[in-house]
Amino acid sequence: MNDLVLFLQLAVQLGTPLLFATLGGILNDKVGNLNLGIEGMMMVGACAGFGVAYHTSSPLLSIVTAGVASLLLSLLYALVTVTFKGNQTVTGFAITILGTGIANFSGESLSGLTLSPSFIRIMGIQIIPVLINIPILGTVLFSQSYLFHLSLWLAFGLYFYLKKTNYGLIMRMVGENPAAADTSGINTTSYKYIHIALGGLLCGLGGAFLSLVFVPRWQDNIVAGMGWIAVALVIFSTWNPIKAIFGSYLFGLLRALSIKYQNISFRIGNNDISITSQIIDMLPYLLTIVILVLTTLSKKRENQAPAWLGKSYFREDR
Amino acid sequence: MATDDYVVMQNICKAFGKVTANHGVNFSVKKGEIHALLGENGSGKSTLMNILAGIYAQDSGTITINGKYVDINCPKDAIDLGIGMVHQHFKQVDVFTAAENIIGGHSRSLFIKKNKNCQKIETLCARFGFNLDPRKMTYRMSVSEKQTVEIVKALFRGATVLILDEPTAVLTPQETTTLFETLRNMRDESCSIIIITHKLNEVMDISDRVTVLRKGESLCTLNTVETTPEQLTELMVGHAVNLHIPFRKINEDKKAVKLEIQNLTVKAPDGKIKLDNISFSIKSHEIFGIAGIAGSGQKELCEAIAGLQTADAGRILLEGKELISLNPSERLGKGISIGFIPEDRLGMGLAGGLTIEENIVLKSYQAQKSFFMDHRASRKAAELLIEEYQVSASNTKQTVRSLSGGNIQKVLLGREISQNPTLLIAAYPVRGLDIAASHFIYNELNKQKERGVAILLIGEDLDVLTSLCDRIGVLHEGRLMGIIDAKSRTKEEIGWMMLGQKAEEHHAKSC
Residue A317: inside a domain, yes or no? Predict the structure, then answer.
């Protein structure tokens, strides 16, 4: 029983960076910009956050730096795709390669370093009194880091923003039909810039969670494909931040499986069957493919991708 | 210039690259007036109005409103000046409700006040006599409802000058009457209404004044009561034209059934029924028209016959041969020849980036034996086509995309006819073409009819359908409401069928 609870707690921890990145991806997609640069933005966030954390030991400063660093990278993406109307797919890939490169290069001098114990104490797991006593959920949800709580509140906040506020309505309008927004007197360019930047910031926080809370060290390629899983999770969640929570923790669960159980063996009849860790490691990625196929079967109009996703908008286009 | 003009546009020039769309255009509209802007496709009507609505910026020229010079740099400037435009392609989000489309970008409060918004919209609708449910999702709406959303959206933003770009192109005669009713209401509330059109009967019916544009220049502004359709056509085209579409009746015993459709049912991928148990037949020497509101199953019908869409039930027989289950290349093998002019010419019909030559050979390259293309043969075919159909192209190596709409259609029609089809399917073949090019296409269809081809013509202009076709089938939400003799029914009767009444029902009522 206790094992199961600890396992779930780990799953939620592993799902948290995915949740940050997925929320960032949703913000980008909803305003009409396909973001394939998530992986690179997470890397930059992870690296910048760790660097500042090592030198200053200030949790707030390091988190802010992580967010700002990947925000800057997302502004580059916005410049190319919004102002210069560049191809979003290619630009996204370029941002991933660039971000990963910058982070691994600058991180060279950071590997092997450890953060101060006081920093780790603040960023690490916090036990919330009273609530911790709730059976199972108490441990799973209330012995987690502050960043975990932030990600959860952000998901609810983002849902509320998209569905209930006029600004959310307008930004969805920009993503669905920029011409409709434009002829309604909306500055589509600034809406795109703002939401792409905020999306980048969230991706950076996802990276920071890895280097400051979960590992907490600098490793080469620390994000290790999580950004790509987030790209899939954005689609899986049908651009809905609440569903993104469940999607992220589902993938967290699979990652937890491969960490906790390096080898699974059992008997069928007289045969010993053992599943190697490599197979288990593959599961999240396999599931990504399966889920993407399954979600394309969804037919409800409201669950489809924003109609103008991936396309540039020229007002004078004829 | 009269002093009671409210909006005045003077000497407007606008070029897109090398193409001059507006050249020194003058235009003005008064308060409480319905003003028609008349001109052929490509005469610069939409460009001029897009400049007024802030979508395009003019290269030179001035705009005054109420005597004051104004700068309109973006749509927001236009909205602030009380100018609203209903574009030909509606600028709305399908997955929004009517209210969300109307409010979006207008309300500056943080939270969406759903009920208050809906109430405001309902009040506005009541004032002008619109019938609109603000909570309805846009993708569930008919074209005419979507248009209402656009008009209400403009009024909600305080428009006193309303521009409508070809508003009746997709409406039934009944819907057009209702629209004109509301436009007159709005005029009486001292709105200025500008209606872009190329339909003369509408100009005569609704407008107070009319301005004629030709090739990017404004020719004149006339009071509608002082002019005639003949005079307007001559102004619009530049020379007198015969607007009559010829029809030749062919003796019944020369005709033989070519295409037979039996109980055809087609479903969309989401399971929605697009064609519901349709049966009809087309004979040789016959043009069979399909009328219906856009999206009533016309596309599915064409594509099912052309073999691009799988049928869920029913049979399609061409000269007795079953077509369902044969893909296009199997059809070619069996010597089945169907000419198809799809709705989306450059999407499905031709490859815009390829040359005229290459496009012509696309359908017959399989007949060439060698591995390498025989360019001489395809060039010859292209030269022949250009000559026969009077395509204005500099040479056969010009890309199709760089041709004008009329010439693109000629290349497509020419290629399809050169295959000697038994059946020719033409979906909206004159959409976007000018009068001369349209008449060229009508004549070509008539020629094919006389040669004995069975023709399926999908149309939107009922005047054209009734004069060109022998018989007309009317579709409503995927059901065939009846097949009628094109010469014995009025447009209004067809309109009622398009709205869902059976042929017999209406006939019984009117008897």
Answer: no
- Count: domains in chain A: 1
At residue A35 the predicted structure's pLDDT band, cuts being 50, 70 and 90, is very high
- Whether B444 and B417 have beta carbons less than 8 Å apart is answered as yes
A318–B110 C-beta distance less than 8 A = no
Largest Cα span, chain B: 74
Residue numbers in A near B96 (CB within 8 A): 169, 172-173, 176
Q: What residues in B contact A181, CB-CB < 8 Å? A: 104-105
Averaged pLDDT score across all residues of chain A: 92
* pTM of the complete model: 0.86
- Taking CA atoms, A229 is separated from A16, A248, A252, A294, B352, in Å, by 13, 9, 11, 15, 37
Q: Give the residue numbers spanning the domain of A74.
A: 2-307
Cβ atoms within 10 Å of B38's Cβ, excluding its own: 26
Query: Which of these, B155, B213, B166, B192, lies nearest to B8 by C-alpha position?
Result: B192
Q: Supply the mean pLDDT for chain B.
A: 90
Contacts of A182 in chain B (CB under 8 A): 55, 74-75, 91
ipTM for the whole predicted complex goes beyond 0.85: yes
Tell me, what's the pLDDT at B511? 42
Apex A125 CA angle, A122 and A127, nearest 5: 100
Handedness of CA A157, A162, A164, A166 (dihedral sign): positive
Domain of A272: which CATH number? Answer: 1.10.3470
Structure tokens given for B288: 């069979």
Q: What is the pLDDT of residue B337?
A: 87
